[in-house]
Amino acid sequence: MSDRVDSNPKVYVILNDLQIPWQDKRVLDNLVLPFIEDLQPDGVILNGDIVDSYQLSEFTKDPLSKWDLGQEIKEAHQLMDRLEWVEEKIWIGGNHEARLRKYVWKHAPALACLPQIQFETLFGLADHGFKWLPYGKYIRLGKLLVTHGSLVIKHSAMSAKAHFDKYGCSVLHGHTHRMGSYYITQRGVPSVAYENGCLCRLDPEYADSPNWQRGFSVVTVFVGSYFNVQQCPIVNVRGKPTFHYGTERFAG
């Protein structure tokens, strides 16, 4: 017999590490975004590194690359357009969004006070109804803390553990481009930490055969702030990117 403690839970989809222009367009446009449209969640959280800020990076860049910040802004608008109908929309900055601030502080500090070159203004988040939280900030979905993350340990789930140790509570983060979960019970109280994968290509120019996994999560929040997280790892099945949600299979 089921115990229906909440007949109207709130549902959120958490996406991170698209790293536009390196997003996996087939996975995003043909699989994940149509799934969100079918699911009709209460909210969507873009949990950092949604854009790469490629030309602002201090890393060595391909001098022949055609990607510039204007193209990233254009494709970010296209993504936000697809999510225009969602009621609650939050964009939490990651370290890649923070590249803009670092670039201005280093190369043009006199311009740092201008609102026009703040990330949220330059990318037009408010025009699409997105609330902006800068890198390092977080939100809570019930008892679950959601943030981009800042720690990377070699193996899956160990970064999740590191973030649990940092925050001392259940947490879902991105940043590592890996999927994983870490469970712990202290003084009879269970907690869990999740790594939320990525939605970028797995063959970027700057990494050779990286140990990454594509995926995202759906978070359901119930009365009393209790939550359920279903991680949706995306794998190739017969040449098609595929994931499962509940008992359903989705392929792009």
What does this structure look like?
This protein has 5 helices and 14 strands. It has 252 residues and is an alpha/beta fold. The strands form 3 sheets. Strands 4-3-2-1-10-11 form a 6-stranded mixed beta sheet, with no helix packed on it. The longest helix has 15 residues. The protein is globular, with a radius of gyration of 18 Å.
Estimate the mean pLDDT confidence: 94
Percentage of helical residues? Answer: 10-25%
The count of strands amounts to 14
Give the biggest beta sheet: 6 strands, mixed
Assembly state (oligomeric): single chain
Task: Provide a short characterization of the protein structure.
With 252 residues, the chain is of the alpha/beta class. The chain has helices spanning 25-39, 69-82, 98-107, 119-122, 158-167; strands spanning 10-15, 43-46, 88-92, 131-133, 138-141, 144-147, 171-173, 179-186, 189-196, 215-221, 227-233, 235-237, 240-245, 248-251.
